[in-house]
Amino acid sequence: MSESTATAVYFFIASLYLTVACWKGFALLRAPSPSFALQTAVHAVGGIVYVVASPLGYRSLGSAVGQPWLPTLPIYLGILACFGMNHLLTILWTPSRQGVSWRARRLTTAWSLAYGFSLTAMIIAFVGADLEGPAVPLEFNTDQVDDLHVLVFLTVFLTMLTCGTLSTWRRSRRAQIDDEAIMHAVRWFGAGMLVTFGYVVCSAPAIVAAATGHHQLDALGVMGSGFGVAGSVMTVYGVSGAAVSKWLAERRDIAVLQPLWQLVVARVDERLSLDSTLGQRDSNYETGSTDAMQPMPHRLLGVRWTLTRQVIEILDGFRELERGAWARSSPANSVKALYEEAMKTDELRRKLGLGKKGLPEAELDALATAAVIRDAVERLQTARKSGNGVAVSTPSAGPRSVPDVPGKKTPAANERPRLVRVARALDHPMVDASLRVVRSLPQTDEPLTTGAS
User: Where does the DUF6545 domain start and stop, copy by copy (predicted)?
Assistant: First the structure.
């Protein structure tokens, strides 16, 4: 790898570290805790280390201080500090089953002292070294190992790195944590530490060979830095991966729910949306127009807020259709009857896009709910155009029979996945076919709740 390529790679990794450091730093300000403090420190130090360790940063700092090899000291101290803090985080996140508090505190204290003594010994050894010749980034281990102080420096560094990485890996393998995000981080910490140990495996033979005057393994020592880079990226993903995955899933669900939102909010009553203004609400609501209301959710910032608002507004739209008596049972009944018929006839089953094993109950319920919603909105829009239904809520006189339907008693925590299934079912061939059947039947005004809870 050329120095320019190595610099670009190191700067990219540094940007990852510093981005996560800012993210965790804001979290630390909101909710101070040892975990957030360690995560912020790890990524801040890691970002600086990768800037300095890049060939450009290494040479620039060496020239600025007049000591070509001096950048090696902060780099190695930073590397050991970063992996040491990741080790301590793993201990905090994976306490023993018994004696949780005191055992975790004792281990944290013992390892902190070990890392502290090691860093101090490395500084003393490095200061006492007599470093000669021009500095070549990534080749310090084999270029200067003939100096006894450098050999001590590297021995302490590799010994503690070995102990820390393997201990973290071993501990993460046995971890059983209920919190999914922390378990994700611990698994990746363990895997990243094991990969980082590859740096020791490559460096130790090269250092021993160089110390005895044989430099045939120098390239192997340089190759070891690749394991360090890979391990660092894996630990960064361990901290950020679960949150990023959740963020991506929320962005995806916002896009999936948008057609359902347009159907039950924009086409039913745009006053249900927080985005609507007073003037737009009055004019568009009276005319039934939705042209002025085509929101494009911000799916980069405030993602969770946008998604939560979408779910709430969709449920409000369901309730408006229920309260206005626009929903009826025939679409849901038609879906289920058509499904039963399709599972008996291969030709119809294939035409409706169904597999031989059929659909899970939740998916079938989503199809039924989607058919009810589409039918209810069509009835509302038809009434508005004919001048018979300007207002959404036109409840019929007297008591109404409200049958129990799919989704009626869905817990609030499960509404999001249910609505995502309903949104995906809106254009399903079975919903289209069921609505064609319903439209061919004599019109009735039987009411039905649409599953809002």
Answer: 246-427
Q: CA distances (Å), 325 to each of 39, 137, 146, 377, in order? A: 54, 75, 88, 11
pLDDT per residue as tens digits for the range 245-271: 888 888 899 999 999 998 888 877 777
With contact defined as beta carbons under 8 Å apart, do 159 and 114 qualify? no
85-129 pLDDT, tens digit each: 989 988 888 876 554 567 778 888 999 999 999 999 999 999 998
CA 41 to CA 86: how far, in whole Å? Answer: 10
> Which residue type, as a one-letter code, is found at position 424?
R
Burial of 404 (0-12, 13-18, 19+ CB in 10 A): exposed
Sign of torsion over alpha carbons 55, 61, 64, 66: negative
Domains of the chain: 3-243 (1.20.1070), 326-453 (no CATH)
Question: Which parts of 128-179 fold into alpha helices (H)?
Answer: 140-143, 148-173
Q: DSSP string covering 226-265, please?
A: HHHHHHHHHHHHHHHHHHHHHHHHHHHHHHHHHHHHIIII
pLDDT at residue 296, rounded to an integer: 46
Token pair for 332: 């849901």
**Model confidence at 443: pLDDT above 80:** no
Residue 89's H or E segment, with its range, is helix 72-93
